[in-house]
Specification:
Length: about 300
Amino acid sequence: MILPCGVQTNLQGKELREHGTHLFPVACYLDILPGDEIPWHWHNELELGMVVKGTAIVDAGSMKFELKAGEAFFINSNILHTASSQDDKPCELHSVVCHPRAISGSTDNIVWQKYLKPLMDNQACPGVHFTSAKAWQRQVIESIVSLWSSAKQEEFGFELHIRNELSTIINLLSEHQPAMNRKSFGKMQRDNVRIKEMLTYIQANYDKELTIDEIAAVCAISTSECMRCFRATISTTPIAYLKSYRLQQAAIKLQSTADKISAIAESCGFQEMSYFAKSFREVYGCTPSEYRKSENNTNK
């Protein structure tokens, strides 16, 4: 079964959606960009994806990939990531999210200990961009296409086929994953913990006036270290992320409430209506009122 995209997170940015079922923890999603919002989020599961149409920009921690149709990606466990279409042009993504036990079954066997755990613990591998330039990456892409087809058709034995293809992909990733630099490992772990704490604070207080000093104080670090941490993990600044998150929340409220646009702007931390309208148009390509009308017509 192919499911529509829909990312909902808690205040820590962890995705709340259960992927698949307890008996078969694998789910396939159809993402149509730029319509489907994919905010910064993370989950314990592994994620694979392929661009079918258009060009996608995928951020995984500090890594940024530009993927054209026919190219694919991997997002490791617990890595903050997001995706968007290039220049807001139409883009179609096929993504697969799976719990590691869909492959290993449990954590007390050789598959988990030799292949999955070392890959998931490798902070030097937050994500991978697959192209047809290398033979092993072509194999990964072919496996993603194959398992997606099985999930769509759901013929007898499709679960076994999907598991086999996932095992093939993990084997290839394990063999070709980058070596982990022990010195940088601790720093990357620390940055990952810090960024999640600071994003949690921003998401809980985005309706208030926030400064970089206040955001940095959450982790008892300097403003320069705060800026470095944001750049190193999600390739943006604290204020740019705050603005982006405020606009995302405003878009949700425009779609789901009948509140006045001025009230929505204020509730999302925008003190000046003109600045809100300008910022909204820069991201969504239309005014807040036009966005509300178009979303209402789409949902009818």
